[in-house]
Amino acid sequence: MTTEMQEIAITEEKPLLTGQAEAKDVELAARILLDQGQEHSIETPHGVLHVTLHGTRTTRRPAILTFHDGGRESKSCFSPLFKFEEMQEIVKNFTLIHVDAPGQEEGAAAYPSGYQYPSMDTVAEMIPSVLQFFNFRTVIGVGVGVGAYILSKFALANPDSVEGLVLVNIDTNARGWIDWAAQKLISVTSSLTEQIMSHLFSQEELSASTDLVQSHRERISKASNLVNIELFWKTYNSRRDLNIDRNSTFKCPVMLVVGDQAPYEEAAVECNSKMDPTTTSFLKMADAGGLPQLTQPAKLTEAFKYFIQGMGYMASSCMTRLSRSRTTSLSSSYSMDGSRSRSRTLSQGSQGGQMPPSPSQTMEVSC
């Protein structure tokens, strides 16, 4: 009798345990899929783009669309930033769209000899197809280096599609004759890997040969699609001027970011001088080097959070990493009341939430 009751109890419990296990497996699989992202190959008028989407495809607010730097792809360029713990407050509220330039995604097949790589203008013209594919009307662009230039081209040509821009290590200028000659000399005396390394890192970082530098050098030199990387790099070096000034610039809020002593520090400062100071913030980060999204994700996350708040998409939250005693109270520079109004550029040393004394000053984060 007892044995029969025990057997009945066991047979009744098995389906329940199996069902619970299946539910947990489904939930775990969904979380893994969400973390890894959904990969898509999107047809555009100028070729196919590899795109990875994270999060739900809600169109109630703009997507965050990223574009990577030269010598890198979206995963290595942005994953450490967007997987950063404090960034999750933003990530959970937005859809992330990571765009890889043609042939730059991990594991991409090498282009054949003689392949004509699309120009920077053409690559920028491929982005509207991504928005149409996912049914997004607008985006907040986040670009680094080459990607910052491409997103700038896209924003200038499609102002109604871009609600905000975060441009890291932007260089809006074409290469002059001196730069062109220097690049020609460098291309003869230095390998492609070393050329790109000088683009990504400061001389101090290269001399220090940190683990980050060594890992990037090894990854680039051993890339199976090195031919594609070279084509993308050469196309960027043939770019044209963006031709922006205070009377002809972006129609959306912009945050310029550059690391102190980064290769493009002077270029970013020059870009800032051409921008509308009422809609532009300039963040120069100490101890960040050439890749602030990797070396200082906490500080960049904090700045990005306030940038998003200034656009009216997130409620205000307490400052965490950026000490009020060392930097401007960011709440004085970003709108917290849900309005889309913008203030002047960020400045270190403002007291009591006062506005910075000059729109040309920058906030140097040294904490």
TrEMBL record:
Residues 329-338 have a biased composition (Low complexity). GO terms for cellular component: cytoplasm. GO terms for biological process: cell differentiation; nervous system development; Wnt signaling pathway. It is found in: Cytoplasm. InterPro entries: AB_hydrolase_fold (IPR029058), NDRG (IPR004142). Keywords: Cytoplasm, Developmental protein, Differentiation, Neurogenesis, Wnt signaling pathway. Residues 329-367 are annotated as: Disordered. Pfam families: Ndr. Its main location: cytoplasm. Contributes to the regulation of the Wnt signaling pathway. Down-regulates CTNNB1-mediated transcriptional activation of target genes. May be involved in neuron differentiation. Belongs to the NDRG family. This is Protein NDRG2.
